Each structure stands twice: as structure tokens, then as C-alpha cells.
Amino acid sequence: MEYRQLGRSGLRVSVLTMGTMTFGGKGNFAVVGSTDVTAARRQVDRCLDAGVNLIDTADVYSEGLSEEIVGEVLEGRRDDVLVATKVRMPMGPGPNDAGLSRHHVIAGCEASLRRLRTDHIDLYQVHEWDGQTPLEETLEALDLLVQQGKVRYVGVSNYAGWQLMKALGTAERIGAPRFVSQQIYYSLQARDAEYELIPAAVDQGLGVLVWSPLAGGLLSGKYRRGQQPPEGSRQLTDWNEPPVYDQERLYDTVEVLVSIGEDRGVSAAQVALAYLLGKPAVTSLIIGARTDEQLADNLAAAGLTLSAEERARLDEASAPPLLYPYWHQAKTSSDRLSPADLTLLGPHL
What is the model's pTM? Predict the structure, then answer.
């Protein structure tokens, strides 16, 4: 297992992270998975044996049950692993049971600590933008938690580029802890993050944790053009996260994944994961699985390196179009581009 520095922090995390959205199966999360304590313990054991040192959860997953299962499974070996969780989403019917107010951030952290059976959270992430709470209030609440020793590092998830930069600038201005990472959706199915979020990570020294790197299973090789989706699958049916805007391009990409996988003797899923691990700023991919077999296959991707030719084939099949102002910059600014600019524009020059 390879370990990478998480942004500008001193923390080193494995290139694969254990995701726990499937733990619990309560409420709306039942469609994602319903891993119970016994199966969760088995999956965590397998991940730790493979060298994974980060487990990612969130308070909202199965209404807190995912955190409870993580806490139970890690009891007696909490110091062997890093734990990341999140705050922002609704956790009750009250007017203050959601958002990033000082009230909800602090109350959410204390509730997560109880469910996780721990005295600290290694990486506490704001789960989503809150446009109605001043950033100063949110960052000051996170600062208090860090000072109290309840949180060690802070991160962000699902912010737009301007929101991310505003948060980093505000933290610097008021002397609050700086986000060390962003957790984002990024995959061969949709490379939208390459417009703003990846360049920002390179420029600002942020780690990137990727959720749903297999696009919810769409890149597993089980979804092929002209074939019915696998029985019991949730993708391309009534489950729309992540959304698919260009199904034909998705199928084109899957065909390249399957072809490379067959040539290498590995699964299409492993190829898709290895592709992301070679992208700029990416620190770790969050993998979750409904079965032990899926988990074992995903873990094997940590040892796979793609050739330049294989990466080029995948780039061509999945490349997003250059939006404005990027197509204009590619035409007129190629003489003075930074490493951050080149993450998007480099292939077009």
C-alpha cells in the first residue's frame, strides 16, 4: 500500500480509503447497502490487513448508524486507524438540525464522537456548502473543536471552486484552521472536477479524497452498451447519483476499461481506480463495497500502474469539452500557464 501526504499537512494516508456509506442500511441509504456489524468487521479487517489506514464515514449515513457500526468495529484498536467523518446534513426535524452554524457544527461533532466511541476525530469535514451561515462562524466553530482536541484536521466536501477559495481565504484572514483536503466526486464517468477543483487543489496544496471513484458501479464493467443492467443494480434506473448526462460516452469509456482490463488480466474497476490514482492532486480513493469480493477486487487496484498509452486511451474516451474561459485561455495564454492551469489545459496545447 502506498501512502501520500494529505495536502500540506503532516498526515499520511493510504491511497485507498475504506468508505462506509453501505454500513447500516437505514432509511434512504438502504438502496446503497445494508452491511451489518459482522460484515463490517470483516471488511474493515480486510482493509487494515491490506494497509488501509483511513476510514471515512458521515453522521448522515443511515441516520448515524454507520458511525455507530464504525465505533463498534474499531473498539480496542482505534489507534490503529484514522477516522474521518462529516457534518452539515439534516440530523433531525428541528430548524437547527442542519447546516454549518456554530450550534450545529459543535453539537454534530459531539454526537459523532459518542457514536464513534472515541475522544477525537482525525479529519472532520464539512459535508456541503451552507450559503446562509457566515464562513467566519463555521470556521471559528471548527477552530474551537481543534483547540479542544476533539478534531485534529479539517476538510471540506462538495464545494464549488469559488466557495472553496473563499473558505481558504477567510480561514487565513481570521487565523482559523485551514482545510487540508477536499472530498469530491471525480471519475472517468464525469471529470467535471478538472475544471476548477483539481487546479485549485494543485495551486493551494490541498489533498483530494475521491468519493464514488467507480461512479456508483457504472465503471465496474457490468454496465455495457446493449445489455440490461445487472439484476438488483441501482444505476441507470431510479438512482441518479451520480447523474449520467452522456450515456453513450459512458459506454465508450467502459469499453476501453474492459479492453485494458482484459489485456492486463484485471477487472475494469481496477483499471478505473488506477487511472484516478495517477491524476494530479489525488491523495486517496474512497472505496466501499456491498460484497467481500468487490472489496477485495478494489483493494488490488493499489498495486496497478497504467502505461502512458493506456491512460491516453482513457483520456480520449472520457475527456470533457473545454468550457469558457478555458478554451480561450488554451488559445491565447499558453505562454504563461501554471502547473495548476496545465492540469486541465495541458492536453489541449
Answer: 0.94
